[in-house]
């Protein structure tokens, strides 16, 4: 298995060297996979005649990226140690090599769940605090886990369509920050929808606690980001993480491990796919 780890690390490192954003994209793949029927690699499956995959569900369509990196890793891992490392674990290990350490031993699902992926189990960027808390609680994750995992938004970018309403219509946003973001995100829907903005305007390619510092000064990019610091029950935790990077790092690792353990397939359940995009 250590050989498999080395291969994953090498490919992920190379991919991030080519494009820093890809680390955040892989973490997001892991998150969206785990929230739909557990961390079983179902997100990676393409559509077939017998089921519709999750890639075209609303939270994922034209949004998720990094599948080619997972494909490249799987191809190399299968060549070195065939039938040993599942796609679910490759996605997990890739997330680890993007930010941290997580556990392994999952198997791959033989199907996908488009309906679940499309119907609110993945929190939307328009979510309010109560919705965020309940959505995470449904996966066995606490409000504290939710706030810590949201810190993954210290890296990566978001499309205009996901933050347009926040920068034009919300009042809990720094006006100069909103105006800066409006320059590259027109008010009219359908215009500039795919224009990108960094989630953390301070250090968008470094994993740190600046995301929380941004929330304190009302510079969260997404509506759902700023909900974490908006006079509600999670304000104190945001303050803690903004002041104590070690507390954030520790709680983020704990929460990622918990998320990685959402309903994994083990033992004889599922399979270990040869190709992550289709069942054996």
Structure description:
The chain has 280 residues and is mainly alpha-helical. The chain is 47% helix and 2% strand. The chain has 13 helices and two strands, in the order αααααααβααβαααα. The protein has a two-stranded antiparallel ribbon with strand order 1-2. Helix 7 crosses helix 13. The longest helix is centred in the first third of the chain and has 17 residues.
Task: Give the mean pLDDT.
Answer: 90
- Let me know the largest β-sheet: 2 strands, antiparallel
Which runs of at least 5 residues are low in confidence (pLDDT < 50)?
none
SSE topology string: HHHHHHHEHHEHHHH
Shape: globular
Order of strands, main sheet, comes to 1-2
Given helix and strand content, the structural type is: mainly alpha
DSSP, total strands: 2
Per DSSP, the total helix count is: 13
Report, as a whole number of angstroms, the end-to-end distance. Answer: 21 Å
Question: Helicity level, as a percent range?
Answer: 40-55%
Strand content: under 5%
